[in-house]
């Protein structure tokens, strides 16, 4: 049986490699960029007026002039105009090109304008040369990097892409994922369960968690029958990069999944981690690492923990992202756990007035108590080397959603 750290190392050493594809700009939100985006010109591309007001030549102000005749108006979107007279001024709008011959902009808020004369209403000493001018190339120069590969494209990133006129982008392919549940006791959410049955929930949890990552996954269910599971998994492995399974991996008489996967050529890298909950987790790959299978324990809390602790970081890395790191939180209450293994418990997180992230443990009634998770924001991770964790102890936490 592996430690948590050993499981992490094995996952990292058998990483799925996804190729790239080109998508239209309109299909890019949320995708992971696979190329470097360069500035196609200076940012800004000209000396840009940063405030509505008047453009002047600073030397006139330095010579003691505080009133300026308005000689023209410069609007955003118009070609650059010259300042007609170095002792006069031009009204200018935010985003317009600074007139040639001018080097400083004074805000309307600092002026009084009467009969075409703009008079300074604040001390001249508060005005410096270049005030309210966004100089050409201040942000980026032509061919500077504006976005690096490996970022998930947010709205602010796409605004930068649009500004350089790029209509298509190279992005990492998303993994083709199938979610698989097994068990005779499970019925669909539309069905009314018999007294000895329950509705499927783990598969929908995994589907929703993958959807939140931007991954479209299909859902499949098989009864506890070796031939049916074998046929179903064989078909899924031929058309998917990743299978995320729930159930059928423990030590029960109907836990067929590990043997079936071995028979289908999936090499086991580990089965069972020294942790609670989620001990029976299974991970394996095809010999070429092009097919990956996570088989998670069927208890809902175990399924949830194993997905957010192991599967999500793995898939993020596969898509070219840095795996989401743990949070560091301070316990609001003491926690005691005796067995020498890594212990995880759901927790509700709040922020103190001092800015500290506080964790309120929510132990619930065991690994089947998934309703307890609706109040949780994260799983706390307690190392196997200790058993008593007083209030105020700082521990790692893995965010849920």
From TrEMBL:
SMART domains: MoCF_biosynth (SM00852)
Keyword Cell wall biogenesis/degradation appears in the UniProt entry: no
SUPFAM superfamilies: MoeA C-terminal domain-like, MoeA N-terminal region -like, Molybdenum cofactor biosynthesis proteins
EC number: 2.10.1.1
Family: Belongs to the MoeA family.
PANTHER family, A to Z: GEPHYRIN, MOLYBDOPTERIN BIOSYNTHESIS PROTEIN
Protein name: Molybdopterin molybdenumtransferase
Species of origin: Fibrella aestuarina BUZ 2
Lineage, uppermost ranks: Bacteria, Pseudomonadati, Bacteroidota, Cytophagia, Cytophagales
